[in-house]
Design goal:
This protein is an alpha+beta fold. 26% of the residues lie in helices and 48% in strands.
């Protein structure tokens, strides 16, 4: 399934259903080594993530993006409710701080994940992030696929 993307001004909402239980999907957000396997746009050639996954903890994500160089994203966790939601502030650059809420909803063994991010400086940044986030979710879907599908 592709992501359902809605952009309204400086707010982005992406909804995606994954064919995996919500505790499994949540786990791919809660572990830096796992997250490094799927986070980043399709042109990211390398992704390194350091995280202190607790309220008040933070993360640093460094990506090498083909043709664009290195991009670093940092953030601080405001709320973590296992396996229901993660809320954090993400710093996208020197002048851009956004608020992110990721909700994990159980749908009969599948997971409906809703990411809402607001506070972008303009609609251009919102659209750029929506593309990269959608591509990240494509990668997450691939790592969540049952092993039999990869054979």
């Amino acid at each position: 399934m592709k992501s359902d993307v809605k952009i309204e001004g400086n707010r982005l909402r992406i909804t995606r259903i994954f064919d995996a239980p919500r505790d499994v999907v949540f786990g791919w957000w809660a572990d830096g080594a796992k997250m490094a396997q799927w986070s980043g746009c399709k042109d990211a050639t390398k992704c390194e993530i350091e995280m202190d996954f607790r309220v008040g903890g933070g993360f640093t994500q460094k990506m090498q993006i083909a043709g664009a160089g290195e991009f670093t994203l940092t953030g601080t966790y405001d709320e973590i409710v296992v396996p229901e939601r993660i809320s954090y502030r993400a710093k996208l650059g020197p002048n851009a701080m956004t608020r992110v809420l990721v909700e994990f909803l159980d749908e009969s063994g599948r997971t409906k994940m809703v990411l809402t991010q607001d506070g972008f400086p303009d609609e251009f940044h919102c659209k750029m992030v929506s593309q990269g986030t959608g591509e990240s979710f494509d990668k997450l879907e691939a790592v969540l696929m049952p092993a039999s599908v990869h054979q």
